[in-house]
Design goal:
alpha+beta; Rossmann fold; Methionyl-trna Synthetase, domain 2; Isoleucyl-tRNA Synthetase, Domain 1; five-stranded antiparallel beta sheet; 20 helices; 25 strands; ligase; ATP binding; cytoplasm
């Protein structure tokens, strides 16, 4: 494509059954926002579009669990998600929702057009049915073993372990998520998109047309799908939550969520265009528009195969120029999991780190999982802030602004003769918009963020080399030139940092008093002067503040608590043993005793030799508790002892009794003891 006249940028519609976490941000929304902001700065016509995905089986599933209506669920999470994005500075031109009337109308019309054109096939197919619940089971209402990798908790449409898509009927040992019963197979009528019909087109368009410009992780996944052979895929479902299929003989059926959700990009664009007085069709139907989908790894097949097949079959729409999907972001070495609460939630981050949106934006960009899975750690987050944003970017700006105010009352000085170092620095600055821009245009956001930091490094090096705080004592005129050059570097940082650090950019423009100057990306490369002599700047403010160890420890403690809660949930309560008679129970003589002595049993890890006063005598008991307690800490501990157990020799020591124990959530042992101190020998009954 020659230079496009406009850009349509879509960011995956987040699903409204939970809030946004850092995996979503790193995979989709931060890179998409950098791209959109950059394009606007370079003077392009941009529609940056997203919205909440509010249909599908997971919504009514969550509603049933919480005892509310699906509408309550989507309203709650749409509100949380939308506000989180706004507070975090994601600059959507429009953020809509698929429950909106305009979306229902758009999706229904899209389906009808394809139906009228004969683009669907109608089939009676076998589907899993829960007889007790009296309903067909949508994919997310079925859990079973993945037929490809053997993961035992795969959903009916996709395995969260290996990423493979499949039909619910392909699962091994499927179970209904509603009742837990094994479902039966029952026939039902549905409409299918025959992907096999579009296989030749997809091979030519993707495998030939995009083999050199799509990311290898995206191209590889698509190639594997196409070469495995494409099959018809249902576009309708038996469900009572969603967009009703607009046909007379389709009562009780809705559009499958994967079919209606991507159409949400179109309906959201319509909503924006109507508000802004634009023609939405220009952004979806004109060949001089560049369409780019930002998505995560798990959405590649939908945006690279299925949605393009839909657009092609419909006939009126352009196809995506690129789908720069990222891989997954892990958290502290473990896979992010919404269901297990193993995540850093955006709305909670914004509460815990007020006015520090850009720190997270920068960290996620610098560690973006662009070609392979990557890991977010709180220690690295702290290091990125303290060692880069504070020590490099913030330090440079602070020194320049403080010195300008100290020496010249905040008025930019007039330069005299430029030295070779001055000219080299000013020439180098002009190269950064081009190098950063090229990286962004190739979807290399990590690379671009490091180029931005290199510009700040250039400024720091220039100041360190020229040492204006020393030169001022011997050559005041020279210092004017040094600070003039440093102010030009500062102004360039204010402009080119905006896609990555929008809050910092705005604050820096305020400090430099250039908010109304409207400097463009091109200006940094082409203007000889960005901040003129005699320009009044404002007082210094810290752009970033150091993050202390205790702040990071608090976040790690939060994750440790989550991990413990997950382990507690996993713990299996042993089933009841064989039933005994009351007479059997009365044979047990359990007494309260006190540990008088304790020592480790030689050549063992688990055993302690105890002397226990059980009221009627003092006896020796060997107990396997050494990994949970040291001998010193249990002297004087009251315990419950089964005293009429037959003596038994353990490691050559005769043990006369058994200490009753249980275990704690962290796997340690705990004594079964009386709530208050009681007399040794008291019976437990």
């Amino acid at each position: 494509m020659s230079a496009p006249k406009r850009y349509t940028i879509t960011a995956a519609l987040p699903y409204t059954n939970g809030p946004i976490h850092i995996g979503h941000l790193a995979g989709v929304y931060v890179p998409a926002d950098i791209y959109a902001r950059y394009l606007r700065l370079t003077g392009n016509d941009v529609a940056y579009i997203s919205g909440s995905d509010e249909h599908g089986a997971a919504i009514p599933m969550k509603a049933k669990k919480e005892g509310v209506s699906p509408q309550v669920i989507i309203d709650k999470y749409h509100g949380i998600i939308k506000k989180s994005f706004e507070d975090f500075g994601i600059s959507f031109d429009n953020y809509s929702r698929t429950s909106a009337k305009i979306h229902h109308e758009t999706a229904s019309a899209f389906f009808k057009k394809m139906y009228t054109d004969g683009e669907f096939i109608e089939e009676i197919s076998a589907q899993l049915y829960d007889a007790e619940a009296n309903q067909f089971l949508a994919d997310r209402f079925v859990v079973g073993t993945c037929p490809k990798c053997g993961f035992e908790e795969s959903y009916g449409d996709q395995c969260e372990s290996c990423g493979t898509s499949h039909n619910a009927t392909d699962l091994i040992n499927p179970k209904s998520a509603i009742t837990g019963n094994a479902p039966t197979v029952k026939e039902t009528k549905h409409w299918f998109l025959p992907l096999d019909k579009h296989e030749d087109f997809l091979r030519e368009w993707i495998l030939e047309g995009h083999k050199n410009d799509w990311k290898p992780n995206v191209y590889g996944q698509v190639k594997s799908w196409v070469e495995d052979g494409l099959r018809p895929r249902a576009v309708t479902r038996d469900l009572d939550w969603g967009i009703p299929v607009p046909l007379k003989d389709a009562q009780g059926k809705v559009l499958y969520v994967w079919f209606d959700a991507p159409i949400g990009y179109i309906s959201s664009t319509k909503e924006w265009a109507a508000r802004e007085g634009k023609n939405w069709e220009d952004y979806w139907k004109k060949d001089d528009t560049k369409l780019v989908h930002f998505i995560g790894k798990d959405n590649i097949v939908f945006h690279c195969i299925i949605f393009p097949a839909m657009l092609k079959a419909h006939g009126d729409y352009i196809l995506p120029d690129n789908v720069p999907a990222n891989e997954f972001l892990n958290l502290e070495g473990n896979k992010l999991s919404t269901s297990k609460n193993w995540a850093v939630w955006l709305h909670e981050y914004l509460e815990d780190f007020p006015n520090q949106q850009d720190v997270l934006r920068y960290t996620l960009t610098a560690n973006a999982p662009e070609s392979k899975d990557n890991d977010f750690t709180w220690k690295d987050f702290q290091a990125k802030n303290n060692n880069e944003l504070v020590a490099i970017f913030g330090n440079f700006i602070n020194r320049v602004v403080v010195l300008t105010n100290k020496y010249y009352g905040g008025v930019a000085p007039s330069p005299k003769d430029f030295s070779e170092a001055d000219e080299d620095a000013l020439a180098a600055v002009k190269e950064f918009p081009n190098s950063i821009g090229k990286s962004i245009e190739r979807y290399r956001f990590r690379e671009a963020s490091q180029e931005l930091m290199n510009l700040a490094r250039l400024g720091n090096k220039y100041l360190a080399d020229e040492e204006p705080w020393k030169v001022i004592k011997v050559d005041e005129e020279r210092v004017k030139t040094i600070l003039f050059v440093a102010l030009q570097i500062s102004a360039s940082l204010a402009v080119v940092s905006e896609p990555f650090l929008p809050f910092t950019s705005d604050k820096l423009k305020g400090i430099l008093n250039i908010r109304t100057n409207k400097l463009t990306w091109e200006d940094v490369s082409e203007k000889a002067v960005l901040l003129p002599a005699n320009h009044q700047i404002n007082q210094a403010e810290l752009l970033f503040s150091k993050i202390e160890d205790e702040t990071i420890e608090a976040q790690l403690e939060k994750l440790i608590a989550t991990k413990k809660a997950n382990e507690d949930e996993k713990r299996v309560v042993e089933p009841q043993k064989e039933t005994i008679d009351f007479e059997d129970f009365t044979k047990l003589d359990i007494r309260i005793g006190t540990i008088l002595e304790a020592e480790k049993v030689a050549k063992t890890k688990k055993l302690l030799k105890l002397k226990v006063d059980v009221g009627i005598d003092i006896r020796t008991i060997v107990s396997g508790i050494a990994e949970s307690f040291s001998p010193e800490e249990i002297i004087g501990q009251q315990v419950s002892v089964l005293i009429n157990l037959s003596p038994r020799k353990i490691k050559g020591i005769e043990s006369n009794g058994m200490i009753l124990m249980t275990d704690t959530p962290d796997g340690k042992l705990a004594f079964v003891e009386p709530e208050k101190t009681v007399k040794n020998g008291q019976k437990v009954s």
